[in-house]
């Protein structure tokens, strides 16, 4: 498999498309009354292969920005139990996400922005494509639109349940009767979109970073694995489909695990051999008048400006939950811990730290408190997607802007998807792929494998990648009591991490002081599991309150 390193041609096409978009994606109005202001609708535009590729380029960044910015870790990680906080994301941390919660509205609008932009791309290619466009690139553009639309709907249905399926945003301008569609309909729609993408994307990317057949097959495997539980019991036919597509990617894509886990989250390794699909960003897009094409997450996750080089780095009050840290086999030897969360005394030689009044040095995570002679921190600060200062990234960092790719899918995910899909039929095969993931992490291989082991492996492998919550939505479909129980018993309270020595600690202890009265556990049940539709959307589209109806698959794309 060719790697997915962003090349100049891709960036030029992406920048050109961004300029053509004109407006800001995040500023679009309510989802029911678009097409979005940013859609390319010029009938004279879709006349060459390069123009088709330019039209689909924003699907790799701008339309996802509002979700990636803060909502991905607010919904995907805080609700999933990965993050704790004293103030930031508290409604999500404490399982009290409401119709007014900021990350709720941002997510809903972002996903329907993706749907709208995908629909515009699909419909415009079908309507305006020129004679000089090759069938290969025409089908590629359509497949990119359907991949991204299917991905957006997978988030929508798992978070809000029944949602409206929209394929033509122009028609909606005259339609005030739009209603939600059943979850079964939405899942059928998702599978159709990814199947189309699988059948029409090439085995080798047309440009570095673009989607391939293996991107789509890997996502099909994940979608079938989740869809298997819709209806209350896991359907073996869906599990078999998940296993089939996952194994196809494993055997045929050429993707391999990157040898060092920590290297997955360094900007220089964008498009590495493990990457199957990723969002791609331009670090200074905001400064160039193209706000939303940069990756802004470091601003909210980094513990301080001393490691970003700018006035951002607002993540000092957030970090791993105790439940998350208790998952690790060993806090020292599991390589994923240090790559995901910073402990006092951790050494990151590839990140520069410039403390106030001090000089540049390699980052050694400070211990900011003392308990007698014992140094400690009250947070396990986030490391993943924190890439450091400009000097650590060839100058490519600005305030609220980096170029670190956001993973949509990597090979380790396909390994664990395959393991879960074949667990009952072939536990030895499941064990093989779980152990490949564990071996890379530096922990002992297992002698046998269970659903619980795979679940915990996914939590550790994908912490702070916005995935944990969707492990629970997958489980809730067929075993809601178990999903609620795990969530309600997660320790989401605060604690202290003591280092045995600073510098160069050799071990850490996690303790809850007797004086700590922070709330630690939160009730979870049917009433607060799904996220409520944002209040602003309900007021604009009251039909969203009506019972869902099956989708008519004889109409639309």
TrEMBL record:
Q: Where in the cell is it found?
A: Cell outer membrane
The RagB/SusD domain extends over: 319-546
Arranged from A to Z, the UniProt key words for this protein are: Cell outer membrane, Membrane, Signal
**Domain (SusD-like N-terminal): residue spans on this chain:** 89-225
Is Isomerase one of the keywords UniProt gives this record? no
The entry sums up its family as follows: Belongs to the SusD family.
Q: What's the name of the protein?
A: RagB/SusD family nutrient uptake outer membrane protein
> Species name for this entry?
Algoriphagus jejuensis
Which lineage ranks, top first, belong to the organism behind this chain?
Answer: Bacteria, Pseudomonadati, Bacteroidota, Cytophagia, Cytophagales
């Amino acid at each position: 498999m060719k790697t997915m390193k962003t090349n100049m041609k891709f960036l030029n096409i992406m920048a050109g498309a961004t300029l053509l978009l004109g407006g800001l994606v995040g500023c679009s109005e309510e989802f029911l009354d678009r097409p979005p202001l940013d859609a390319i609708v010029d009938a004279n535009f879709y006349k060459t292969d390069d123009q088709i590729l330019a039209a689909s380029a924003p699907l790799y960044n701008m339309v996802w920005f509002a979700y990636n910015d803060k909502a991905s870790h607010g919904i995907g990680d805080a609700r999933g139990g990965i993050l704790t906080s004293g103030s930031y994301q508290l409604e999500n941390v404490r399982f009290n996400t409401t119709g007014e919660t900021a990350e709720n509205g941002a997510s809903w609008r972002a996903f329907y922005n993706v749907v709208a932009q995908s629909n515009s791309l699909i419909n415009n290619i079908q309507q305006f494509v020129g004679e000089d466009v090759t069938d290969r690139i025409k089908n590629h553009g359509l497949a990119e639109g359907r991949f991204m639309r299917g991905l957006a709907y997978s988030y929508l249905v798992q978070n809000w349940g029944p949602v409206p399926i929209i394929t033509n945003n122009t028609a909606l301008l005259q339609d005030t009767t739009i209603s939600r569609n059943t979850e079964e309909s939405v899942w059928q729609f998702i599978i159709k979109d990814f199947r189309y993408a699988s059948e029409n994307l090439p085995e080798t990317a047309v440009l570095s970073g673009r989607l391939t057949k293996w991107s789509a097959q890997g996502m099909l495997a994940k979608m079938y694995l989740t869809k298997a539980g819709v209806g209350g019991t896991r359907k073996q036919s869906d599990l078999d489909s998940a296993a089939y597509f996952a194994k196809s990617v494993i055997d045929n894509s050429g993707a391999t695990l990157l040898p060092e886990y920590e290297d997955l989250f360094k900007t220089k390794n964008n498009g590495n051999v493990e990457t199957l699909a990723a969002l791609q960003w331009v670090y200074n897009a905001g400064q160039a008048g193209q706000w939303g094409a940069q990756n802004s997450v470091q601003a909210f996750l980094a513990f301080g400006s001393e490691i970003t080089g700018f006035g951002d780095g607002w993540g000092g009050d957030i970090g791993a939950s105790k439940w998350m840290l208790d998952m690790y086999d060993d806090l020292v030897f599991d390589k994923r811990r240090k790559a995901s969360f910073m402990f006092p005394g951790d050494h990151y030689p590839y990140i520069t730290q410039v403390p106030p009044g001090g000089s540049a040095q390699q980052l050694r995570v400070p211990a900011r408190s003392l308990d007698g002679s014992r140094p400690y921190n009250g947070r396990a600060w986030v490391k993943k997607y924190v890439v450091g200062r400009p000097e650590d990234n060839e100058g490519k960092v600005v305030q609220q802007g980096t170029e670190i790719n956001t993973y949509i899918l990597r090979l380790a995910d396909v390994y664990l998807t395959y393991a879960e899909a074949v667990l009952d039929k072939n536990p030895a095969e499941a064990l093989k792929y779980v152990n490949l993931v564990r071996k890379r992490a530096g922990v002992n291989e297992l002698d046998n494998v269970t659903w619980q082991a795979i679940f915990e492996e996914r939590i550790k492998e994908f912490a702070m990648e916005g995935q944990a919550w969707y492990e629970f939505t997958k489980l809730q479909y067929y075993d809601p009591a178990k999903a609620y129980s795990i969530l309600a018993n997660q320790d989401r309270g605060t604690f202290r991490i003591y280092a045995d020595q600073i510098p160069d600690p050799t071990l850490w202890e996690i303790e809850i002081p007797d004086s700590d009265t922070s709330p630690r556990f939160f009730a979870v049940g049917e009433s607060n599991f799904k996220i409520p539709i944002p209040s602003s959307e309900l007021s604009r589209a009251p039909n969203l309150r009506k019972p869902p109806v099956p989708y008519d698959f004889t109409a639309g794309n």
